[in-house]
């Protein structure tokens, strides 16, 4: 079955290649969660749910000939999407003059879908029952100092790493920052001649990421080993054909994706 409805659409293979390039290129410039989380998949568009195990809490329970698994839940993998249109007259004009097709709307739709993915990773969706890295129940939380002053940011992060280690959480640590906190780190540390950002970059082996999706004043340190947290992908980000209406062509950029939090002790959110 052609899930993306490309076969039989009036869109040429060449144009599909151009759309794919615009979608993937635009999304890569936005996505941050995928840059430090292990990707589990793609599992295919038919994957509708995934098992989520609580670290250290999974065990089989048997009784009266029935075996179940405690500490494991099955969660639906949600579909994220954003639509765009390519207008028939624009396509005809590009073909007539030999100009490249303007795929700005495709790129914008991909960027919007990518922002939705990152928002789901970091905040989840409380109304739909999804947790994110900064909102999951039971994660570590620390009061953030003023990162515009002294070496407060470095000290806070060192303390957060110490907290993770005290809970037996070892491995690769990644820091995700809101844009304002990232800019606050772009200053020379007094007496060192080194940017505060560069000190933190060295502390975390280069795994520092920023995203406007976090809003303002937010940061999280994550031990991003796949045993702690990963990103489940069913249908990877792609464009699908919807319909031709009033001669224009409607498309949908979509994906099915779920952040899977297994060990809440592996996350420290700064408040």
Radius of gyration (Å): 22 Å
CATH architecture designation of the largest domain: 2-Layer Sandwich
Query: What is the domain total for the residues?
Result: 2
**Approximate shape:** flat
| Helix fraction bin | 25-40%
CATH secondary-structure class of the largest domain: Alpha Beta
Oligomer: single chain
CA distance, first residue to last residue: 47 Å
Q: What this model shows, in words?
A:
This protein has 271 residues and is of the alpha+beta class. It has 2 domains: 13-132 and 228-262, Major capsid protein gp5 fold; 140-223, hypothetical protein PF0899 domain (hypothetical protein PF0899 fold). The chain has helices at 13-28, 33-36, 88-97, 104-123, 152-166, 179-184, 196-203; strands at 38-40, 49-53, 59-63, 66-70, 72-76, 79-86, 140-142, 173-177, 188-189, 194-195, 208-210, 219-223, 229-233, 238-245, 248-261, 267-270. The strands form 5 sheets. Strands 1, 6, 13, 14 and 15 form a 5-stranded mixed beta sheet that branches. It has a 5-stranded mixed beta sheet with strand order 7-16-12-8-11. Strand 9 and strand 10 form a beta hairpin. Helix 1 (13-28) packs across helix 4 (104-123) and helix 5 packs parallel to helix 7. The model has no long low-confidence stretch (mean pLDDT 95).
Chain-wise SSE layout:
Blueprint: H1 13-28, H2 33-36, E1 38-40, E2 49-53, E3 59-63, E4 66-70, E5 72-76, E6 79-86, H3 88-97, H4 104-123, E7 140-142, H5 152-166, E8 173-177, H6 179-184, E9 188-189, E10 194-195, H7 196-203, E11 208-210, E12 219-223, E13 229-233, E14 238-245, E15 248-261, E16 267-270
Parallel strand pairs: 1-13, 7-16, 8-11
Antiparallel strand pairs: 2-5, 3-4, 6-15, 8-12, 9-10, 12-16, 13-15, 14-15
């Amino acid at each position: 079955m052609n899930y993306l409805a490309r076969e039989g659409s009036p869109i040429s293979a060449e144009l599909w290649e151009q759309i794919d390039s615009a979608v993937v290129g635009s999304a890569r410039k936005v996505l941050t969660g995928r840059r430090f989380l292990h990707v589990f998949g793609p599992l295919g568009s038919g994957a509708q749910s995934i098992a989520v195990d609580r670290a250290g809490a999974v065990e089989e329970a048997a009784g009266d000939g029935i075996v179940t698994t405690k500490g494991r839940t099955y969660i639906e993998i949600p579909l994220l999407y954003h639509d765009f249109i390519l207008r028939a007259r624009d396509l005809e004009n590009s073909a007539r003059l030999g100009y490249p097709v303007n795929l700005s709307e495709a790129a914008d739709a991909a960027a919007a879908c990518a922002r939705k993915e990152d928002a789901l990773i970091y905040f989840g969706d409380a109304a739909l029952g999804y947790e994110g890295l900064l909102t999951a129940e039971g994660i570590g939380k620390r009061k953030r100092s003023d990162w515009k002053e002294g070496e407060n940011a470095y000290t806070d992060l060192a303390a957060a790493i110490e907290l993770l280690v005290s809970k037996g959480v070892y491995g690769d640590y990644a820091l995700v920052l809101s844009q304002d906190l990232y800019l606050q780190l772009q200053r020379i540390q007094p007496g060192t001649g080194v940017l505060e950002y560069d000190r933190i970059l060295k502390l975390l082996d280069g795994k520092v990421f920023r995203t406007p999706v976090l809003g303002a004043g937010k940061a999280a340190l994550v031990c991003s080993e796949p045993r702690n947290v990963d990103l489940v992908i069913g249908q990877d980000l792609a464009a699908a054909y919807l319909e031709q209406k009033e001669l224009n062509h409607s498309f949908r950029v979509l994906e099915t994706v779920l952040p899977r939090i297994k060990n809440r002790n592996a996350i420290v959110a700064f408040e």
